[in-house]
Amino acid sequence: MKRFAQLFREIDxxxxxxxxxxxxxxxxxxxxxxxxxxxxxxxxxxRPRRATTTTRLREWxxxxxxxxxxxxxxxxxxxxxxxxxxxxxxxxGESVDDxxxxxxxxxxxxxxxxxxxxxxxxxxxxxxxLGTTExxxxxKLITGGFRIGVSQKLMTRALAQAxxxxxxxxxxxxxxxxxxxxxxWHELIExxxxxADASRPYPxxxxxxxxxxxxxxxxxxxxxxxxxxxxxxxxxVLRDGSHFxxxxxxxxxxxxxxxxxxxxxxxxxxxxxxxEIMVWTAEGPQSFNALQKRIGRKTVSKKLLTDAPVxxxxxxxxxxxxxxxxxxxxxxxxxxxxxxxxxxxxDAPLRLSPPVDFGTWEDLARIRKGAREATAExxxxxxxxxxxxxxxxxxxxxxxxxxPLTIDAVMIYAQSGxxxxxxxxxxxTFAVWNGNDLVPFTKAYSGLSDEEFREITAxxxxxxxxxFGPVRQVxxxxxxxxxxxxxxxxTRHKSGVALRFPRMARWRRDKPVQEANTLDxxxxxxxxxx
Length: 530
Description:
Layout: H1 2-12, H2 17-30, H3 33-43, H4 54-65, H5 69-79, H6 82-89, H7 101-110, H8 116-129, H9 132-143, H10 152-163, H11 167-173, H12 185-190, E1 205-206, E2 208-209, E3 223-229, E4 232-239, E5 242-247, E6 271-281, E7 284-285, H13 288-292, H14 302-307, E8 310-320, E9 323-324, H15 330-340, E10 350-352, H16 361-368, E11 376-383, E12 391-392, E13 397-401, E14 405-416, E15 425-434, E16 437-444, H17 450-462, E17 464-468, E18 471-474, E19 479-484, E20 486-489, E21 497-500, E22 503-507, H18 519-529
Parallel strand pairs: 1-12, 2-13, 8-10
Antiparallel strand pairs: 3-11, 4-5, 4-6, 6-7, 6-8, 8-9, 11-13, 14-15, 14-18, 14-19, 15-16, 17-18, 19-22, 20-21
Helix pairs in contact: 1-2, 2-10, 4-5, 5-6, 6-9, 10-11
């Protein structure tokens, strides 16, 4: 664990990408292979099974530190991270253990089936044998992920440096449904034909938001446009007579959408499609609200399959006849995709995302204004000669979204953030007027600067009316402009509406509370855009 702790300190102690990459690359060259594999897994969100609950961990830590539980809880509220709080409160260890990362992960796995008392004894002994940083990381293995400034892109760059292989190849090798229990360092990183796993998708190519006029991109004839759909980005992989559906977050969602089992009847083996998973009915594409009914379900009823049928609106072809064609120009891939999906029967769970034809940038700007009527968020712009790259690259793919919807609302509740913002109030509940009453309708926690968060935090502490655990009711004095991407009906909220991606666009210091928007204004937005 010492070697892993040293890696953590080097990464956590710098904001420079070059320093982090160098530290990771050195670790991937020198650490034991099993520790390297687990490090890749942890930093890509594949954490081991939790050995105990955080409730028990709090109780055992308070007992070991000789503190009342309430004091640990108060400390946690200030520190903002349970693993770090426990590591700081525990007394110095009685010995030093030299076991590696894999040893401790396996040990935690082995205690998952023993009695609660035996689990507590093991964790107490572990705390006694580990230094402060090692304890923090050990606690992280129990409580959650390692969010320490290591992105997938940064990790693949480090792996490329350590192994001498191409960065795009490393990104592809890390995709898929692997765990350290199902593969080895050699099989995952070094072996030839590592990508032979039939289910493995390709790294998604991600676009940047366009924050200038599109004419800055050059001649319009060099570009292709299509709608930016509001669904779930996904890859449909058809290999070895089977199908696999992956979300952009690298989650295998095949069972959630059983409709795609029929894709092998319409598309040849050795095909990988990139597109948008959407509810599509006889009336056309439906909003994300319709798709939410399908998300997270382990079983899907016949009624739901009928009421909310999904299709893949395909906009790119990544593999054809078993051959990776991502290096081909987008225009060529698009032509092949159109040929592949030509004359699909009406019952196929696939459709071609239609191109948006335009002659000038001015023409396209006028078309973009109708995005919401097309149930889209805006437009995608793709350079005709662009290859399909891995990750977010600036230059060839852009998303030109509509300006968000906005409404002015009153802050009525505040809650502390977490991590580096644990000492600030950053999570707020907002309300609109319904007659003389303020009705809560959304929460938001992003959009303000650090200076603004510090200012509003000082104000919240002076103007708290009541406390409900970590939540504070505050005097309704401040108006904020709330930006959001969509609005939909909701039976779970008192207001009857729910917003998509709400955030604070600005603090309306110029507007008195009485001039905030009303519930009727929200309902009118729902009528227009819901």
